[in-house]
Amino acid sequence: MTSTKLAKRTQKLLDTTVIDLLKAAANPNVISLGGGIPASRTFPTLQLARITNQIMQEAPIQALQYHQTAGLSRLRKLIAHQLSQEWGRQLSDQNVLITTGSQQGLDLVSKALLDAKDIVLTNNPTYFVALQTFYAYEAQIQALSLTQAGPDLDQLQAKLQKKKPKFYYVIPTFQNPTGICWSSKTRQEVLVLAEKHGLTIIEDDPYSQLYFSQRPPLPLAASSEKVIYLGTFSKTLAPGLRVGFVVASAQVIRQLTLIKQSMDLHSAILPQMMVAKFLAKEKLYQAHLDSTRQFYRQQAAKLKTLLTQELSQLAQWSTPKGGMFFWLKLKSKSLDTKKLLSLALKLKVAYVPGAVFYVQKPARNTLRLSYATVTPTDLELAVKRLALLVKKAKRR
Ligand SMILES: Cc1ncc(COP(=O)(O)O)c(C=O)c1O
Hints:
The protein is of the alpha/beta class. It has two domains: 3-43 and 286-395, Aspartate Aminotransferase, domain 1 (Alpha-Beta Complex); 66-278, Type I PLP-dependent aspartate aminotransferase-like (Major domain) (Aspartate Aminotransferase, domain 2), CATH 3.40.640.10. It contains 13 helices and 14 strands. It has helices at residues 17-25, 45-58, 60-64, 73-87, 101-113, 128-136, 153-161, 184-197, 250-264, 269-280, 282-311, 341-346, 376-395, and strands at residues 31-32, 96-100, 119-124, 140-147, 150-151, 167-170, 201-204, 228-232, 243-247, 315-316, 325-330, 349-350, 352-353, 366-370. An eight-stranded mixed β-sheet has the order 2-9-8-7-6-3-4-5, sandwiched between helices. Strands 10-11-14-13 form a four-stranded antiparallel β-sheet, with no helix packed on it. Strand 4 and strand 5 form a beta hairpin. Helix 7 runs parallel beside helix 8. Pyridoxal-5'-phosphate binds at residues 36, 101-103, 127, 171, 176, 204, 206, 232, 234, 239, 244. The site of pyridoxal-5'-phosphate has 13 residues, from helix 5.
């Protein structure tokens, strides 16, 4: 199908930068710090194999039959119970809808809330697939600058004085792509502004469980039932399961459930049963989370050491306290990391150029590095190659 036959609203979804990057980086000789995928060595494969066998012996029909749209009741209850304990807020299964990854949650919420030309507020930079989702529903996207403590509150206030955004999409904890974690104070201030102006917040939270040592501040949704929260097991168990969830008021969950029906009737049940069985073994799940955190902590520490050794004269960054990413700003403002990518691939290293994450005014000298999937030896090679790349580029 040629692009002229596609609906106009899909035009902004056709940018192939990231797909091309991933294709090029798939060359086994290229060390890619570009992927946004979790480390496969953290997947609890043996336990999941055992659990799957059990399910197929004990309840094969339930695993294979159609199911209700809201998802497996047992899993919804487990999620509600766990979050009630963590957040100190009373939640029930009526507050939880299971989705096909949090990406579907994002699509679903956008489908439910956005009319063409509605304003979506987000941060600059932000998760670029979220931008594609909002464009698909013909929204106008506006963005607030981010500091290490969170969004610029003066900008937020100024935006709220003008035409009201339909919602504000945020990733307050270990953001993709910057790794920024909002302070508790910023979280509270954003909630106060949201309450005052009747602003709906969509909180996307795939990374908060991947903290290295200290727990991050609680999600915004812990303090307000008006926040629509998107969760996922993609980073804590495995992304191929495609089990995510939305937490919101019972009324919003009922509405979203009706809308999800026309998307896929329900998310696949076998993975939901697998996740439910895993969560029910609380000690096993906690031990798994601990070892996953430890793995990412070690990887991030290694990358930090290497960056300090090789790139401190050439770039700036702040060290994340969790999640999967380092966000670098090259000191030479004139360098464009998108243009440099072909040279990087010749040097057999890949990253994601920062510009793809921006709504407007991209800082073209930025790049995102993931430490999730690369061995320490390859990390070292990759960072040396990056340093060589920047030095070469500066001389050109
Ligand atoms: C910020 C953010 N939101 C949503 C997703 C989608 O995750 P899922 O696998 O749960 O659909 C990702 C995936 O990397 C992400 O980084």
